[in-house]
Amino acid sequence: MRHTLLTPEQAAAVMHDGGVIAYPTEAVFGLGCDPHNEKAVRRILALKQRAESMGLILIGSDFTQFSGWVGDANPEPALATWPGPVTWLFPKAADAPHFITGDHPTQALRVTAHEGCRALCDAFGGPVVSTSANPHGTPPARSAGEVETYFGDFIDGIVAGALGGKDNCSEIRDLATGKILRPA
């Protein structure tokens, strides 16, 4: 099936209704949903064939969107790199759900510089799950067509837009140590 491409506002409505969408990010297409909706998150994990224990990244358009997801921490090192393609591991909030954080004491967060992702988060009114659009162990989708090939009718829409021009997925750094866990 060929999906009609969605605006950020249409995609936000789909996520508010519990749907799963695909959208262009800095380097690859991502799968996203409402991070508070356990059923939607579990759909993404099943589509990707990804273990819950691995945890998921949340993206936002501003650090304030992560209120309720972050434990006690000095955000300054992360704020110095944002908005941008750097994901930081923050101490997770005490009530952060396992289906998002996995088996980690941290929550992976990124304030994105990608205009389409920023518009999506703003339209949604908060952070969005961001994980590469591909089954585990396969190359990430770099086009809407590749998303269709991987997931077809198993997702609820694809956001219109272009990739951000980066070759690799976001760098991941640990806030507590500054250590780079995944280079860009």
UniProtKB/TrEMBL annotation:
Provide a Gene Ontology MF annotation, just one: tRNA binding
- Some GO term, biological process aspect, for this entry: which one? regulation of translational fidelity
Highest taxon above the source species: Bacteria
Chain coiled-coil ranges: none
Q: Name one Pfam family in it.
A: Sua5_yciO_yrdC
Taken from the UniProt entry, a GO cellular component term is:
cytoplasm
Q: Which InterPro entries match?
A: DHBP_synth_RibB-like_a/b_dom, Sua5-like_dom, TC-AMP_synthase, TC-AMP_synthase_SUA5
Keyword Cytoplasm present in the record's keywords: the answer is yes
Task: Tell me which EC number(s) this protein carries.
Answer: 2.7.7.87
Reactions catalysed according to its record: L-threonine + hydrogencarbonate + ATP = L-threonylcarbamoyladenylate + diphosphate + H2O
Q: Where in the cell is it found?
A: Cytoplasm
UniProt keywords, alphabetically: ATP-binding, Cytoplasm, Nucleotide-binding, Nucleotidyltransferase, Transferase, tRNA processing
Using the record's annotation, list all stretches that form the YrdC-like domain. 5-184
Family annotation (HAMAP family): TsaC (MF_01852)
Function statement: Required for the formation of a threonylcarbamoyl group on adenosine at position 37 (t(6)A37) in tRNAs that read codons beginning with adenine. Catalyzes the conversion of L-threonine, HCO(3)(-)/CO(2) and ATP to give threonylcarbamoyl-AMP (TC-AMP) as the acyladenylate intermediate, with the release of diphosphate.
The record's listing under PANTHER family reads: SUA5 (PTHR17490), THREONYLCARBAMOYL-AMP SYNTHASE (PTHR17490:SF18)
Family classification: Belongs to the SUA5 family. TsaC subfamily.
Q: What is this protein called?
A: Threonylcarbamoyl-AMP synthase
Its source organism is Marinihelvus fidelis
UniProt lists the gene as tsaC
